[in-house]
Amino acid sequence: MNQKVLSVIGGGASGLAAAIEAARFSKAKNSNIKIIIYERLPKVGKKILATGNGRCNIMNTSVNKKYYHGDSKLLSSIFENFTIENNIEFFRSMGIYLAEEDDGRLYPLSFQASSVLDALRFEAENLGIEIKCDTKIEKIKRNNNVFILNENIYSDAVIIAGGGKSASVQGSDGSCFDLLSSLGIKIRPTFPSLTGIVLKNKNKALKGVRAAGEIYIVENGTVVASSEGELQYTDYGISGIPAMEVSRAVSEHFALHKKGKIIMAVNSLPDFTPEEIFDYIITRKKQNPNLLCEDLLSGVMPKKLGMAKLSSASISCTARLSTLTKNKIAFLTEIINSEIFEISGALGFDNSQVTAGGADTKLFNQTTLEAKNINGLFACGEVLDIDAVCGGFNLSWAWSSGRCAGTNAIKYLSEK
Ligand SMILES: Cc1cc2nc3c(=O)[nH]c(=O)nc-3n(C[C@H](O)[C@H](O)[C@H](O)COP(=O)(O)OP(=O)(O)OC[C@H]3O[C@@H](n4cnc5c(N)ncnc54)[C@H](O)[C@@H]3O)c2cc1C
């Protein structure tokens, strides 16, 4: 019997999971299938090393479609068959045990992303998966039930796992969108997500300040996204997890050339009501009328941020608290509670963690991830039009969808 070949394009999170699951399933079925990963970079899994600031927020225990954008039926179907518990077991079987932090975030017990990549690489090697690095697949054709990659690589089935366009230095340069498109798969508009927000009226003196805050993105008068947590003020605007989480709405607005106005409102004391902020300032004024305004807010926020709030409220930092009228205090309260910033955009793909948009999931079987009109073609991971918020949800999708594509590619080849 001729040996069949399964090619996996992309050796990132979903491609490695797909190849390993395929090899294990193939071994269990005693099928004679050669599995080859093609990776355009000199090494596989470069992005995995950067995840979770090098600690790899590998999954989340509370995977739920509310944390994802994209086809909710497809998400339910894949996560029902390839659950987080299965994924935990998948990593345990390679010696990777996990630790849980806040909000169901899982990390390898080593808290080192390198241990996750090593485990995947060693298991791929152990299973006899061939890894061809420095090999970018630039062309794909289908002839008589066979796929031809780069004119001279023949394959009986293909899994496209090349990711999106985010962080291209880590390999995902969008080329797999072109491959899928050349086979007639529609690519829905792509734009960067989980990235920083560029503001027009930013205060550059705030660069490097980190402080709690709540942000709202308001598009034509309607709040379209909001998040709370530690904000990081930068020279271009605002970053940190809350900013990253709302960046999708900003990116989408500009990428899709949506009409109208988009602004950001920041509440710098989310645990205080406006009345409490007002009373706090009045009390401070009564207690120490001679205090300089620059020290007014130092007890509730970083001094630089307090000074920026004063400046936005047109209050001099060197004025005494005694000079603050009720009107000025009311205006400062409003600025602290809801300062409005004009947005000029979001940072681009290279600075984003994930790509929104991608291959139209309606064109893929919801249980197998095989293209409906092209037998033997599978896709998984970020190349599909699925993306999520921070917290381990994107990698959860990469593992589950990768394992799904791997298993079903072997089923397809075994029945072919
Ligand atoms: C800095 C950063 C931190 C992140 N942290 C987290 C986190 O902690 N938790 C989390 O859940 N998610 C995180 N993410 C998101 C997560 O890493 C991705 O969603 C996930 O890696 C996507 O997996 P993938 O396999 O689809 O694509 P990728 O991991 O991008 O892998 C695609 C691979 O395919 C290769 N490739 C592309 N095109 C071709 C081609 N034509 N031929 C050959 N090879 C090709 C690429 O070189 C790459 O190795 C982070 C992302 C970034 C950038």
What is the topological layout?
Layout: E1 4-9, H1 13-28, E2 33-38, H2 46-50, E3 59-60, E4 68-70, H3 72-81, H4 84-92, E5 98-100, E6 105-108, H5 113-126, E7 130-132, E8 140-143, E9 146-149, E10 153-155, E11 157-160, H6 175-182, E12 187-193, E13 197-199, E14 210-219, E15 222-233, E16 237-239, H7 241-255, E17 262-267, H8 274-287, H9 303-312, H10 326-337, E18 339-346, E19 354-359, E20 377-379, E21 386-388, H11 393-415
Parallel strand pairs: 1-2, 1-11, 2-7, 11-20
Antiparallel strand pairs: 3-6, 4-21, 5-6, 8-9, 9-10, 12-19, 13-16, 13-18, 14-15, 14-17, 15-16, 17-18
Flavin-adenine dinucleotide (FAD) binds next to helix 1, helix 2, helix 6 and helix 11.
Walk me through this protein's architecture.
33% of the residues lie in helices and 25% in strands. It is of the alpha+beta class. It has two domains: 4-191 and 354-415, FAD/NAD(P)-binding domain (3-Layer(bba) Sandwich); 196-347, Helicase, Ruva Protein, domain 3 (Orthogonal Bundle). The protein has a six-stranded antiparallel beta barrel with strand order 13-16-15-14-17-18. Strand 5 and strand 6 (105-108) form a beta hairpin. Helix 1 runs parallel beside helix 11. The radius of gyration is 25 Å and the shape is elongated. The model has no long low-confidence stretch (mean pLDDT 96). The protein binds flavin-adenine dinucleotide.
